[in-house]
Amino acid sequence: xxxxxLGSRIDLRKASILLVEPNNQAMDVLTSIFLGFGATHCLKAxxxxxxxxVAHSAPLDLIACEATLQPEQPDGYEFVHWLRRSNLEPxxxxxxxxxSSHTSNRNVSxxxxxxxxxxxTKPLAPTVLLQRILWIAQNNRTFVECASxxxxxxxxxxxxxPDGVGRRHNDLSAxxxxxxxxxxxxxxxxxxxxxxxxxx
Amino acid sequence: xxxxSYIRRPNRLGKLISTPGGRKLAEAVAQAEANxxxxxxxxxxxVDGALDRLRQAAARQDAAAHADVYACASAIVGFAGLCHLxxxxxxxxxxxELSDRYIEAGAWNTAAxxxxxxxxxxxxxxxxxxxxPEAEAVMEGLKTLVRRAEExxxxxxxxx
Lengths: 200, 160
Prior knowledge:
Strand order of the largest sheet of chain A: 3-2-4-5-6
Low-confidence stretches of chain B: none
Number of helices of chain B: 7
CATH architecture of chain B: Up-down Bundle
Oligomer: heterodimer
CATH topology of chain B: Four Helix Bundle (Hemerythrin (Met), subunit A)
Helix content of chain A: 25-40%
């Protein structure tokens, strides 16, 4: 995905953005990136509790949250999990980008299953962060709510049901039936794909 | 089967971002990168501080030491690449992987951890160009050290 394909401008001046990061220097980096993008309204939190307080106090348009917060306290994954089930309007549905230094399979799975839209890896690259923001802005993912999950639809790449097993009512069967018509021959295919000029 | 709801919400971020005005994407990225560049001295101090804490954590024997090694390595990953210390960041990331794996498995290989910390020290002090043969040799040396350390630990485990 390149930036060139995603429109030419970005306006974050009116966006309310929550930045959650426990390390002061890393918070400065994150803030400076968003300032570079033109954001003017960044709310900051350094812990799970502070992030909760901000989520209760103001409508948020975007959240960028470090996955590892204070030791011995709930982390960024747990914050997103809490947020999705908080019933806070409109923040329970706010786009969330989780940020992590270590994107092991376990961490990526946790990010997906806690209800984050994306996970991006440190060191933070402005281009990557901007791509993800634009992707979220242009692809309004449906939210799914069930007993085990609440968050943006995790199937957004048209890869078919996980492991080929459909669980949703509109999933097609993985089993293919027999053909009901004969295959088209090449001339018939060509006639469909290469329209000929009509001779009058 | 449990009930599932599909909820379509207004795209607030999409509306805000696409309002007329704002910055060109290339300008936004360039400004963000310039902002980061101006913070390089502070980020280098973070790398050095995390490296010191990492050495201390690796030398400790208490219950929290292993988690501290992981946390310090994570901190280095976050800053090294922004200070043009890509190789150092790669070694720190490998140390995250390794320490995470050891913590999960309830194991710990002191020699393999030490090899990573020494390599990071060399890369930080020697100031080698990122793609130089010397930097490549340091990385290869680390791989060899870690492989030997893990083979030795495996051999000891099978004997004991």
